[in-house]
Amino acid sequence: MSTAESQPWVERYRPKSIDEVASQQHAVNVLRKALTSANLPHMLFYGPPGTGKTSTILALARQLYGPELMRSRVLELNASDERGISVVRDKIKSFARAAVSAPNPDYPSPPYKIVILDEADSMTQDAQGALRRIMEQYSRITRFCLVCNYVTRIIEPVASRCSKFRFRPLDVASTEARLLHIAQMEGLRLNPDLVPVLIRSSEGDMRRSITYLQSIARLASARGGDVRDMSPTTVSELAGAVPTYVIQSLVRAIGIDSDDINDELPPRATGSTDFDVIERAVRHVVREGYSSLQVVLQLHDYIISHPLLSAKRKTKCALHLGATDKSLMDGGEESLQLLALCLALHEDVIGPP
What we know:
By secondary structure, this protein is of the alpha/beta class. The protein has 3 domains: 9-166, 3-Layer(aba) Sandwich (Rossmann fold), CATH 3.40.50; 172-239, Helicase, Ruva Protein, domain 3, CATH 1.10.8; 244-350, Zinc Finger, Delta Prime, domain 3, CATH 1.20.272.10. It has helices at residues 3-6, 9-12, 25-34, 53-73, 85-97, 125-137, 156-159, 172-185, 194-202, 206-222, 232-238, 244-254, 274-287, 292-304, 311-329, 334-350; strands spanning 43-46, 74-78, 113-118, 142-148, 163-166.
């Protein structure tokens, strides 16, 4: 198998130029002008995952220097792995102060290098403080591009030295066009119902939607069938979504009315208390191996969009859902956290308004 064939589709179809970047017109328009001038500011790209932040700066660097000169002119670091002050003082500073290599006559090749710090919001504050001084000292020959999801985690002295670009979640039309393009390039004939499910499951994250598409293609190939035979349910399973009937069974146990329930739980036993019903529903979810974090997310969507719950009750539920989400992210025991959440939601739903 060739290197190209074994390459993940996310990398294979990463934009090669900034004109190929989808749905980020503001950033693309500004950066396109940078290609015609030697004046590129320090930049801060922020926004949700999978919206093209890293792809955009890599495409810009490729157009500025070409694939060969990029090796000496561009330093790309994942700040979540290399985020300490020692890395800033040693690796980044050494690169920033090094002399600029000879230009490539076939490309603009401006007289500066570029340091790309991916996931810069994971850097410690000490490291960001050291970075600020390097940005000032070597700005003549080195420009920085910080890429992050949460701009509030970048200290103000660093953020104020950068031109900020907010990357928005991709719109449905752009994501659909990109997925259909990839499917065409890979020779796939998709079920028309498959693309909307891919987009909905990825929640505006292009990287996830492309990964799901590749997973569907690999699964179809392993089964010896066609991608057209793959159902939307299979996409949801690959995305880790909890089946709708499981969520409906859980909200019914909590006390929220639910229509069209396909309930796999046995009928309520005589003399069972509300706690017994909720505990049994939670045990069923945990036994099936569903992610508690995913259950919390889908419970949130179900409750917030419920037409019969008042805004006050939804607010109470949202507070408990948020607290449980944090506890699970901090490493809380899944079954206990989910049980405590469902009991709290039960009180929010049937208790006094």
